[in-house]
Specification:
The chain has 289 residues and is an alpha+beta fold. The chain has helices spanning 5-8, 93-96, 102-110, 115-121, 196-204, 219-227, 243-258, 277-287; strands at residues 19-22, 37-41, 48-53, 59-63, 72-75, 97-98, 124-126, 131-137, 143-149, 160-165, 176-177, 189-193, 208-211, 233-236, 262-265. Bound molecules: zinc ion (ZN). Residues 24, 27, 29, 32, 37, 53, 55-56, 58 line the site of zinc ion (ZN).
Length: 289
């Protein structure tokens, strides 16, 4: 069993190379009164805390500093399993970030994102790759992943580099974006989109959105959106321009139906970032009756 970073953070962290044992609160193997949860400060990686419970056999890890350089893996978009070597300089995104440049700003504005939306979201320019830095937030607004989107036509790499912190256990709250309106047009509806800009466009139109950052959705995340985030109506709005994506949108829709959600699949030509806010509202009102 995997112990979540959130549950481990409730114990005082040990120093580097030191092990401390605690009673495992809410240990699934039964009440632990013999301090069988061992937390060790990694002797190799500063700030990395490793945990193991000798009662339930659960293990986990977390890092003390949420602004650390993330251990990175990057992969090409869906359908291509080959990995893309991340240049060393992109391993320090926080120190390498510059304010959003004019090219990035123009690209975001060309898709209809408002200045307040752009400012609030925290887009930046990644110096190392000369790409747009797009953070993905988890709970408590912590950056758990980020994307580097190419804007330079001379860039031969894939459109997006997806970079993730492998110590972070993914949840449905990673990439969940909340409506800009208070209250939102519907508190029980979430719109599944492929990319962050589309997701933000949906929030400007008054709906919550979940951003896939690709076109795949795991069963766990889908279940989380229904059970933990409490959405009972799911609108799947993905790019409609290829058979592969249409098939994935279909499969995602069918899975949400199995989970008992009310599901609407949008079959319009383009994804939300290419619609005006009023256009998005029109499409939504059309499918949610
Ligand atoms: Zn335990």
């Amino acid at each position: 069993m995997k112990l979540s970073p959130q549950s481990l953070r409730t114990y005082s962290p040990p120093e580097m190379g030191v092990t401390i044992n605690y009673n495992h609160e809410k240990c699934p193997a039964g009440v632990d009164k013999r301090r069988r949860l061992y937390l060790t400060g990694s002797p190799h990686t500063p700030g990395l805390i490793l945990a193991y419970c000798h009662n339930c056999g659960g293990s986990g890890a977390y890092h003390l500093d949420t602004r650390r350089p993330m251990p990175l893996t990057a992969y090409l978009p869906d359908g291509d399993s080959s990995t893309f070597e991340v240049p060393a300089y992109t391993k320090l995104p926080f120190s390498q970030r510059l304010p959003l440049g004019s090219v990035g700003l123009a690209w975001l504005m060309s898709h209809g994102l408002s200045i307040p939306t752009i400012d609030r979201y925290g887009f930046a320019h990644d110096v190392g790759t000369n790409r747009l830095y797009i953070p993905i937030y988890g709970q408590e607004d912590r950056v758990v992943k980020y994307q580097l989107r190419k804007l330079d036509l001379a860039d031969q790499g894939p459109k997006y580099l997806n970079v993730q912190d492998y110590l972070h256990t993914p949840t449905c709250f990673d990439g969940l974006l909340y409506s800009n309106l208070s209250p939102p047009r519907s508190i029980s509806t979430v719109v599944i989109c492929e990319d962050v800009v589309s997701g933000l466009k949906v929030t400007q139109a008054g709906y919550d959105s979940y951003v896939l950052r690709g076109s795949n959705l795991s069963a766990e995340i889908a279940l989380g959106l229904v059970r933990d985030a409490q959405y009972n109506t799911v609108v799947v709005w993905m790019d409609n321009d290829s058979d592969v994506i249409r098939k994935k949108a279909h499969d995602i829709s069918e899975f949400f139906k199995l989970l008992g959600a009310k599901v609407r699949k949008i079959d319009v030509e383009a994804d939300p970032k290419n619609y005006t806010e009023n256009g998005i509202i029109g499409v939504m009102l059309d499918v949610i009756k």
